[in-house]
Every structure is written in structure tokens, then in C-alpha cells.
Amino acid sequence: MNWLSNFIRPKIRSIVGQKDVPENLWQKCPACEGMLFHRDLAENMNVCSHCGHHLKISVTERLNLMFDNGEYKRIDVPAAPLDPLKFRDKKKYADRLKDAQTKTGEKDAIIVASGTIGGNATVVAAFNFEFMGGSMGAAVGEGLVKAAEVAIHNNAALIAIPASGGARMQEGMISLIQLPRTVIAVQMVKDAGLPYIVLLTDPTTGGVSASFAMLGDIQMAEPGCMIGFAGKRVIEETIREQLPAGFQTAEYCRDHGVVDLVVPRAELHETLSRILGLLMRRIEADPNGGSKKGKGGNGNGKDTIAAKILSGGLSNASAAVNQLQPANEDEVKATKKAKAGQRAASA
Ligand SMILES: [Zn+2]
Fold it and tell me: Is the pLDDT of residue 73 over 90?
């Protein structure tokens, strides 16, 4: 037997080649521990077929499923100063950067792309969590500013997709400056009267949620993703209280007014197309500037709701979006009446 297993088997293996038998054909779902076949998982957009848990998805895969026909153009992000503080902990920051660049094939933790979603011009700035935990340094700030500029130039909507542990501590103060910088970037888009939508993905924490990630005209989130500033354990230790179950999940945030919509991956393209269609149509109908409050434009009932979302009634945004589908004049009038009634009653 020794002769068979020690000599013949390796010989056969070397001839056949091990590449034909990849070992990780199966993956365990982190939520339900169900076994998932890699091909099924890819076909199902990395969503568990047993429990619906949304596993992580690569940035390029996400862009493919967001843009029309998966077609988009990458936009170059201007280079940021490398390792400005000559920082080193256990390892030099410069080396960490190089490792991350080799591992991901990207320059930094953000990818900017432009294309159309439901026929609407859109610029997407998406974080790559694989790159140093999606942490936000100068290069990421640069990416968001670039995305905002391109959106304004193209008269396009801006969608930010954070997946980040927060600021990049190796860049110290320079990393923190990206917080106000990104806030100004999205404000430029809003001042131009263009929609700014945020899709929160797992995880959105720290400096990112303390800046641009919480400023969307519409805040969307992936099911089950973790959204917060500090982690649950840190908060519990600080306030010496136990936090409720499901704390800091997308669904918890929606129920408590932080998030407008929790959108399953399979419905993402369609939902974005619908929302952008409504918001952008108004901008096209009013070329003198979307920042003016819409007056109902060409008498289209949907227009007034879109204008309402853009011009401030943000807390009602998700309710308004849900009403949008088969809107006609009469329905809009009826909802308005009901809303006015509610307001009068609560006053
Ligand atoms: Zn599962």
C-alpha cells in the first residue's frame, strides 16, 4: 500500500494537476452555518440561499449589479501624498500600503465609477473593505471629492457606498481632515440640486459614519449590515448598560429613523432606478437649477413628491418613496390631505 500511496498517487496528481480540484468549493454561511456552493452563491449575488444573510461582495461585483447592464467607466482618483507622517507601528505604513495595493490591485480604499442606473447618469464612490478595512485617509477623501466634482460636471446623481472601519489612524490628523472635506464635497452636490444617496454596507463605522455617510438625501442600507460610530462593546463598557438585541443593525437603524430603506441586494438596481428616475426627472424638467423648490413642473404628480424629498422633508422620505410607485394626481392629493390632517391633529 505504501508504494501505492507514496509513489503512484503523487505521480498521478502531478500529471492531472491539483488545479482541477479547488478545495474551497463550499463556504459556510456566517449567520446560519448552512453550506453554500460557490457557484450558487455567486449566482445569488453572495446572499445565503438558506437564511438570506448578505455575505460580503467585492466592489466590482457590486458595481456590476448596480449599473445598467453592468457597464460603467472607472474614474481616476488624483494621487494623495503617500505616508505623510512617516508613520510606523509594528510595521511601516508605507509597507502596509504596498501590501494592500498588491493584495487588491487598487491604489487605495475607494473606487469611483460613472455610468447609468435606470438610464439616469450616476457617479458611484464605493469603498473597498479589503483595502486596510476601508479606512479613510487622504486618498479616500480625494476620491469622494473627485466623485462629487464629476457628478456636478455630468449633471449626475452621486451614490456613496461606505464599508469602513473609520479614519485611517496611520495618517493621524490628515485622516481626520477628510471628515469635513467629504462633508463639503457632498454639500457641493446638494447645492447643485443633484441627488445624493448613501448605501450603507457592512460595516459602516467611525469617522465615515461621522461625516458623509449619514448625509444622504435618502439613506439606504443592506440587510443586516452593521451601522454605528463606536462598537457595541465599547458603548456597553462606557455607559454600563446592556444594549438591546439587534443594536446597530440596518433594520434597527431603520426602525429608529437613521435609515430610510433596507434594500436586499436583488432589489438594489430596481430600487435605485426608481428613486433616481423620480429625482432626476424633476431636475431635467427644471433645467434652471434643481435647488429651486419644484412647483409640480409639468403637472406630473410624482414630481411634487420628488421635490418634497429633495427640498427637506427627509424624515418622510421613505414613506414618500413607498408611495411613489403607481402615483397619479388624485392619489397625491389624497396623501397630501391626509398628511395635512395628521399635522393639524398633532399640532
Ligand atoms: Zn445563511
Answer: yes
Peptide bond just before 326 cis, omega within 30 deg: no
CA distance linking residue 263 with residue 45, whole number of Å: 13
Mean pLDDT of 19-40: 85
Strands (E), 7-119: 26-28, 35-37, 72-75, 110-117
Q: What angle do CA 333, 324, 329 make, to 5 degrees?
A: 30
Cα end-to-end distance, the chain, whole Å: 88
Give per-residue pLDDT as tens, 251-287. Answer: 999 999 999 999 999 999 999 999 999 999 866 666 5
Return the pLDDT at 319.
54
Instruction: Quote helix, strand, coil % in the chain, to nearest 5.
Output: 50, 15, 35
- pTM, rounded to two decimals: 0.77
- Fold classification of 58-266 is 2-enoyl-CoA Hydratase; Chain A, domain 1 (3.90.226)
Q: Ligand 1 center to residue 246 CA distance, Å?
A: 17
Distance 45 CA to ligand 1 centre (A): 13
Instruction: Cell numbers for 327, please give them.
Output: 402615483
Give me the residue label for grid cell 454596507: 201
- 198 closest CA partner among 272, 121, 256: 272
Q: What separation in Å is there between the alpha carbon of 30 and the centre of ligand 1?
A: 7
Set of cell numbers at residue 126: 464605493
Residue type, 102: T
- Cα of 46 vs centre of ligand 1, distance in Å, is 10
* Intervals of CATH 3.90.226.10 along the chain: 58-266
For 80-105, how does the pLDDT look when each residue is reduced to its tens digit (9 = 90+)? 988 999 999 999 999 999 999 999 99
Burial annotation 283-306 (CB, 10 A radius, 16+ → b, else e): beebeeebeeebeebeebbbbbbb
CA distance 62 to 70: 9
Cα–Cα distance measured from residue 117 to residue 72, given in angstroms and rounded to the nearest whole number: 10
